[in-house]
Amino acid sequence: MLSARWRLPLLVVGLQVGLFVLFVLFVTYDEHSDAAGQTNLTDHAHNQLYAIFPLFQDVQVMIFVGFGLLMGFLKKYGYGGIALNFLIAVFSVQWALLVQGWFYHLHRGRIRIGIRNLLGAETACATVMISFGAVLGKTSPVQVLVLALLEVPLFTATEWLVVELLGVKDVGGSVAIHLFACYFGLSVTAVLYRPGLKGGHKDEAPDYHSDKLAMLGTLLLWVFWPSFNSAAAARGDDQHRAVLHTYIGLSSCTMTTFAISSLLDKRGKISLGHLQNAALAGGVAVGSAVDLMLTPAGAFALGSLASIFCTLGFRYLSPFLAKHLKIQDVCGINNLHGIPGFIGAIGGIVTILATPDEAYGAGLYETFPHRAPPPLQATQRGELGLARLVPALQGGAGRSAADQARSQLAGIGVCLGMAVLGGMVTGLVLKLPFLAQPEDEYCFNDDPYFQLPTEGEPKDSCKIVIKNC
Amino acid sequence: MLSARWRLPLLVVGLQVGLFVLFVLFVTYDEHSDAAGQTNLTDHAHNQLYAIFPLFQDVQVMIFVGFGLLMGFLKKYGYGGIALNFLIAVFSVQWALLVQGWFYHLHRGRIRIGIRNLLGAETACATVMISFGAVLGKTSPVQVLVLALLEVPLFTATEWLVVELLGVKDVGGSVAIHLFACYFGLSVTAVLYRPGLKGGHKDEAPDYHSDKLAMLGTLLLWVFWPSFNSAAAARGDDQHRAVLHTYIGLSSCTMTTFAISSLLDKRGKISLGHLQNAALAGGVAVGSAVDLMLTPAGAFALGSLASIFCTLGFRYLSPFLAKHLKIQDVCGINNLHGIPGFIGAIGGIVTILATPDEAYGAGLYETFPHRAPPPLQATQRGELGLARLVPALQGGAGRSAADQARSQLAGIGVCLGMAVLGGMVTGLVLKLPFLAQPEDEYCFNDDPYFQLPTEGEPKDSCKIVIKNC
Amino acid sequence: MLSARWRLPLLVVGLQVGLFVLFVLFVTYDEHSDAAGQTNLTDHAHNQLYAIFPLFQDVQVMIFVGFGLLMGFLKKYGYGGIALNFLIAVFSVQWALLVQGWFYHLHRGRIRIGIRNLLGAETACATVMISFGAVLGKTSPVQVLVLALLEVPLFTATEWLVVELLGVKDVGGSVAIHLFACYFGLSVTAVLYRPGLKGGHKDEAPDYHSDKLAMLGTLLLWVFWPSFNSAAAARGDDQHRAVLHTYIGLSSCTMTTFAISSLLDKRGKISLGHLQNAALAGGVAVGSAVDLMLTPAGAFALGSLASIFCTLGFRYLSPFLAKHLKIQDVCGINNLHGIPGFIGAIGGIVTILATPDEAYGAGLYETFPHRAPPPLQATQRGELGLARLVPALQGGAGRSAADQARSQLAGIGVCLGMAVLGGMVTGLVLKLPFLAQPEDEYCFNDDPYFQLPTEGEPKDSCKIVIKNC
């Protein structure tokens, strides 16, 4: 059997060689990055780069820095959290460029890429990061790479089903990103159940410094979440609302977390762990309705609700799931992504049903493309005037608000089905012995994978000195 | 009497319920975020979002990440500094959206909000953060929330008096933000004087790690300060100058701080504490003149001056104030915001008086709206030509440069009066016993408010181990 | 002889007074920041500020925060790394504003500055930071200031020779930034060779916390590198490609680093030090071809190559250079900037030679200004049609692709010559005794230059306690 020492490098080299060949065969520039696609009349100021780049950079900070620091919250698994987040984030983006390219951007056998593809790939990447949270510290680098390898295409297929086929409104991804990633991750961790960690693990905890760095990660995710949630919205007022709602939802959930976390402790002390997670739940919970006419107060309510359930989830549900359903969810993704994802999905449906069409004015079919009349039908109905008024209007499916709500419900179902099934299969694959799953005692520890400073973690070196005295 | 354990959660829940009701009653979308406000002719690329969002995101990083890390500089109050900064920042923005809305954005009984309101609210928020620096670690979470509750409306009123009524030029906020926040905070801390901390407190100091994180906070504030100072400037060359002046002022004050800090130590050693604060003083000191024709050399001079006085203030003035005036200023806000605020205010006046009108060319009345001729007077004087040349010209107050300078002086006076009076009243309110002010020995310590990791702060755990050996 | 205690403050004060005088004499606003440069027809939305500011802010984070944290990786030299990076970054920008102004922006005896000058100055600044990496912890603050004082004009002259005179395509700076800075820095450190550090130094290593902060620095450099590499590209598709290539190059080099680092350790353990550096090598290696039609697969290949050589360099070349060539390269800049710089330079040449002109379509002369026909020749050849098609076309040098490739080669030579000669002279100057070079035992230690917290670095205080028990 191949020694553990060779597995990670060989897998990485194999993946890179494979990806390189696929890049050679498939990847080329899109019309905004191809020099030959410009003419002497091209106004470079309108290059798509300038509309997307600021959002892209914010999302970059979230994925690589924010997530990374948050994943590094364990006292002895700081390198692991930060560096493995980096590893699978980078790989997921590379892989998603290809997979999403095959789904959406294939022209004459070539994938045409530009900045929008990078941004789209980071959405797939976020999904992998979220699922990774369920198995953080319990899986080898080889396992998490295989997880990313399987989750990226499954997410892409699910997103295609949900957003393209069913036409679900889900700009911030409550359904396609958070629900999917959460229940995929929980299924994986359920299959990888470790009876030996039933009573917890001595290293599954932060120390004072790692906790502050994880909080820094949360703060970075918090400040840039409006960019994440608005990136897929239509330009203009839709994107503007997405920023407002995300900010307001994050605000109310942060405040509420301080209250609930304090209430749940018998001495009234706040848990930084609650804050690191529940302060972000509002960003998840406004996801499906984020560009709709949710109203500021609606965003406020969704944020508060998400925080309440998220914090209660950490206190009561996670221990219950671990004990009775054998779901060991290291980062509590069910609390931050699962429950708030459901709140977001329902929030979207309620907003769709409760808002009168007039509230959207001329933008109704821009915000809800599937509610536009179908091309033929439009002509039959004599709605030619509409086409003249909005020349770029694309034919839709003529959905009513109730139709749209039904699609949203269907989307939730499809998403959960794909996530649970896909997660279970992935979990079984990850159990294959040559993927080098670490033994229980080496969980939550950098030592098996990283060279540690000789005067490593302060606590340890103190102990060593003391033994000598 | 209500146990201390319930006070924070009940206050937070009460505030959130109250704010939610007010959001329901008052808050709606502005013309850039309301779907029904767009027509088929709206060019979404001109949505206000795109002009403001990059500045807003930079200010977000400053408020939540930069300030948070800087406030976390104390070795045992890292959670407190970072998390309470987060708490009151979030609350201040929520509250300021309403208060500033009632002052400035009320249309038919509804507050119309968009991204500009979020940015405006973060200005109020910055004021609260600054004042918080004076009482950091000596106040309970309940007290700081009450502080924010009182300071936000007082700041809004002061800003309205200074900027709207008196027409003070103060784009970077030397007067309305820094002077106000500083003397408000100092008045609060003077009222909350603790004789027991006269000789200092063993925990009122950083350790090696918290000092590096605080320095990271300073660096983030430093790099994004040009966005903060330019956010309120007129678009175009005004905003361009604001960026240049802020950068140059920060540069010269940083260099100067290295020199003065080294000079003040008898071994020539630099204080990281000086650097964390005085390296930012230039951003304060260019505040009032930041969009004027200050000249690059003028910004350079203001930055250097601010650093000299700021660093000397830490060395000599802060101990003097603590000893003789009973003003215990934990973060030294008098040095970073008070003195540089005065330098900035005077710098603004000198710039206004010393720059000939010709230097502003056609932009004179854009930079100084109150210097434009009053509408009627313009017609009388036969200046119709001007109105034809600059069609959007709004009538002003026909001020001369000297008039403008007098208004600036008046603004300083109003600001100081409001700050000192408001701060004293706030201090008295904070003394109310049910606000749970911590006892002296629990100051600068996370333990009363936060769940700490069992293997908490390295130093402590070492001591514990040693006792056993 | 002047006591060491006075040298830094006096040098800083002297430099600041000198710079202030030069600012007064020379520096004024450019046409985008000067109020009098606007007319009533100026569209402020087209102010250059808005095209450059987002890139500028990203580069700011890289220089001050990213580089700072990365330089702070040593366990006892964290203040030094972060704060001295801050000191010389600020000074380099101030100084480069003047030096680059005299070279490029002098109009009637005045340097006209705007945001583009700040961005340009940060390029010079990056060069100083890179070179600083070679002597980190072995030089006094006085020495590094003198290094910056000398390197900034030398870099400016070199860049002028390479980019302006020879017309080298080098938008991401593989040649003019990375090769120059690296071999300048290596020459300096070779002259400053310390036989006493031949066997290493006990403090030349990170600890667990400093390593995580340095990794945070790397992540910030990683996410913002696309801004750095695209800042000097032509607007539109050129800038778009620069972003794509940088991102793809960074991705492949990051993945490859995980593999190679693991392969190089006999237990298969990954080195965080490798990751902190080699994960960035792809950004260097795409530098010269970053805006060309390199193809996504080309960027992928350059990134992988750079990582392989960078990681091998850390393992084999750096010890060899230290032992046999007396080049003690603290941060391994030869591995991150030297070797990948060569890969980038060659990558540029190959891309120029291998890409047919048709691939650039109408943008050929925009991407390669020196390949445009010379003004006179154009007329002679009857190419007036071209001038009509592209009215803004500036006459070039009529270069063929092979001509351009020859210029690139010449640029590499000029750059290396300037760097090695300039670095040796600078090294000799830094040896002057009054520059207060620290003794070997005080290297890599904050204590000589910074006030340390009384309960300083955790490890030390443990030892002290233990001695008592």
Automatic annotation (TrEMBL), chains A, B, C:
Major localization class: membrane
Residues in Ammonium transporter AmtB-like domain copies: 20-437
Keyword Transmembrane helix: yes
Keyword check for Transport: yes
Keywords: Ammonia transport, Glycoprotein, Membrane, Transmembrane, Transmembrane helix, Transport
Location within or outside the cell: Membrane
Domain of life: Eukaryota
Residue intervals passing through the bilayer: 7-29, 49-70, 77-98, 118-137, 144-163, 175-193, 213-232, 244-263, 300-317, 409-430
Alphabetical list of InterPro entries matching this protein: Ammonium/urea_transptr, NH4_transpt_AmtB-like_dom, RhesusRHD
GO biological process: ammonium homeostasis
A molecular function (GO) term: ammonium channel activity
Membrane topology value: Multi-pass membrane protein
GO cellular component labels: plasma membrane
PANTHER family in UniProt: AMMONIUM TRANSPORTER, AMMONIUM TRANSPORTER AMTB-LIKE DOMAIN-CONTAINING PROTEIN
Family the UniProt entry places it in: Belongs to the ammonium transporter (TC 2.A.49) family. Rh subfamily.
UniProt name for this protein: Rh50-like protein
Organism from which the protein derives: Callorhinchus milii
